[in-house]
Amino acid sequence: MEVSLDEFRNRARPVRIDPSRVNELRGMAQEVPRMAALTGSAEWDLYLRYIEAHIKAAERMAEAKKNQAAALVLEDEPKAKAAAVLATVYQTKAETMRELIIIPRWIIENGAEALKRVAELEASV
């Protein structure tokens, strides 16, 4: 089968991603849900930045404790286990804070309905 020069030039080619950009792209993909949580309110967005800083710190500590546990596993088993437990604690802290990111948007979106229900409850008492 012969292919014309125009067909050859216009055919689909596989996309090649520069390996140095993989981490950058991975970081951008992780930021998408967090950017969706922004509220447009300066106060709530400051809260989100505060939580985000704590998430990153917890993730760094979890990684450090995982590495420490791996390094100590053959030398000092009790210390390795303690480091592994702390790694889990920091991972859990980061996950909990990721859940906290959702709260401001939920409050803004559902605040009016919540106020209405509170008023109904207060009126019935």
Briefly say what this structure is.
By secondary structure, the protein is mostly helical. It has helices at 5-10, 22-36, 42-72, 77-100, 102-124. The longest helix has 31 residues, at 42-72.
The biggest sheet amounts to: none
Q: Specify the overall morphology.
A: flat
- With helices defined by DSSP (H or I, 4 residues minimum), what is the helix count? 5
β-strand amount:
under 5%
Question: What descriptors fit this protein?
Answer:
flat; mainly alpha; 125 residues; 79% helix
Explain this structure.
The protein is an all-alpha fold. Helices cover 79% and strands 0% of the residues. The protein has five helices and no strands.
Any chance you could write out the topology, listing elements then pairs?
Blueprint: H1 5-10, H2 22-36, H3 42-72, H4 77-100, H5 102-124
